[in-house]
Amino acid sequence: MHKMTVAAFRALVERDLPLARWLGFSAEAIGEGKATIRLPFRDDLVRPGGTIAGPAMMALADCAMYAAVLGMRGDAIMAVTSNLSIHFLRAPKPVDMVAEAALLRMGRRLAVVEVRLYSAGDGTPVAHIAGTYALPGQAHGANIAVP
Amino acid sequence: MHKMTVAAFRALVERDLPLARWLGFSAEAIGEGKATIRLPFRDDLVRPGGTIAGPAMMALADCAMYAAVLGMRGDAIMAVTSNLSIHFLRAPKPVDMVAEAALLRMGRRLAVVEVRLYSAGDGTPVAHIAGTYALPGQAHGANIAVP
Amino acid sequence: MHKMTVAAFRALVERDLPLARWLGFSAEAIGEGKATIRLPFRDDLVRPGGTIAGPAMMALADCAMYAAVLGMRGDAIMAVTSNLSIHFLRAPKPVDMVAEAALLRMGRRLAVVEVRLYSAGDGTPVAHIAGTYALPGQAHGANIAVP
Amino acid sequence: MHKMTVAAFRALVERDLPLARWLGFSAEAIGEGKATIRLPFRDDLVRPGGTIAGPAMMALADCAMYAAVLGMRGDAIMAVTSNLSIHFLRAPKPVDMVAEAALLRMGRRLAVVEVRLYSAGDGTPVAHIAGTYALPGQAHGANIAVP
């Protein structure tokens, strides 16, 4: 089964994930069930207090989960988030943010993924995320396996 | 303590929440610990499969939680999401989405909020969210009460 | 497909759920995708502060989720919790606690369930839970459909 | 500020946590914001399918979170779970289970803790947990800082 490359994931974002594209997400590394995605800091992603808005962080985490799943099963483009739980740890600094995702469990139907968000530079942890992706059937990659 | 009005919340989005503004969130109703926010459907919010992207839904839920908190404590602009847990129920149709948020508990330091996301029109439930907002001190509305 | 009755669920607890039996869980009502379970107060379920211990509340919620699933699909004895997220709202009083569970979504593979925990008597809400059960295949009720 | 020792935590379980005592939880190590707790396997902790019941696992995780918090702030006996999110990864084998908890963030009011559950012996991961404890005020360790 092919794994997704960084170049292929970037093309996927460019073509099929307009929200991730608008947010500027940049895939830095994708391995077998692992992914690193960067959110370049921008003034229009802040919220009152001058920190990066929570929804931008949740979007970054979700994108990294998706990339980690595709890093294991490159055909699972139709995988969808089934649930996601995020704990915010600190107000992030106004700098780039990095997401590191890793599979905790790859099942036939469900993948459980963990993500850690850091402020780039000093590497301060800013959020922890765990979630589940529902996977499409292996023989029918084009069907959505929604719960 | 003043409560936030729909008009005041719209102005807040316009001025201080650029991501919510870009996503087109529109406050429809804000009451004491309650809020209804609409996400107008747009082609650039979809993901593979043609459904609204999960991160847009998480952002909508977070915005509704924030509005519900401000509907109870209009001074708590600096309230921040402490945690959020979302369960996706169905792939949403390519139509407007509506978030209805209601406080489960308003404490002195923490507010727990529940949100239901529906597809507009037929009202199909598409996601359920529960989360916590950390509140700024009442006497010092300008400080961030991050955990 | 048969639905599970209160009597059948009580027998299941008695025979196959020793922890729920020890905790004294008592099924009060089971409907199509709904269930009400009571935890009779006991001194040995408290924690420092004199309130009911959080794990007893999580166990109660999980039991109610399971009963709600079986209320819809009585054959799904092998259904297992896939994830669970709980928000505690208030320290519960030293009285009976009641769980009311309702399905948010019944899929072929996954059921998403919401539970509200109340203090009996005055009905004060003490916790909110949302979670997912993984369902066994309909034709092979005896297989565990773990993720 | 004193940290809690393994011996002191065991005495606390014995005296004040009857549910943890009944479940047989045994503290193996407690450090600064870290804790390892063991659940010895017992026949009366299983559920249909012969695996350890989910609620016993949630209770184990919560106990480990509590011990990790006390490992950092030994006076915070009145700390209470504010929220907890668990993802089950695999049906655990009928052997001892071990919880390893570590603080992700220790704030003044809230502590965010992560827990991994393993089957003893081969170390297979069986669940991942993240949650928040609300801390009592430092000067008034006897007050419950419930949200």
Write a concise synopsis of the structure shown.
4 copies of one chain form a homotetramer. Chain A has 147 residues and is α+β, with helices and mostly antiparallel strands. Chain A has helices at 6-16, 18-23, 54-72, and strands spanning 26-31, 34-39, 80-88, 97-106, 110-119, 125-134.
Structure notes:
- Four copies of one chain form a homotetramer.
- With 147 residues, chain A is an alpha+beta fold.
- Chain A has one domain (6-134): Thiol Ester Dehydrase, Chain A, CATH 3.10.129.10.
- In chain A, 24% of the residues lie in helices and 35% in strands.
- Chain A has three helices and six strands.
- Chain A has helices spanning 6-16, 18-23, 54-72, and strands at 26-31, 34-39, 80-88, 97-106, 110-119, 125-134.
- Chain A has a six-stranded antiparallel beta sheet.
- The longest helix of chain A has 19 residues, at 54-72.
- Chain A starts with 5 loop residues before the first helix and ends in a 13-residue tail after the last strand.
- Residues 139-147 of chain A have low confidence and may be disordered.
- Chain C binds chain D through residues 16-20, 22, 43-49, 51, 53-56, 58-59, 62-63, 77-78, 80-91, 144, 146-147, and chain D through 16-20, 22, 43-49, 51, 53-56, 58-59, 62-63, 77-78, 80-91, 144, 146-147.
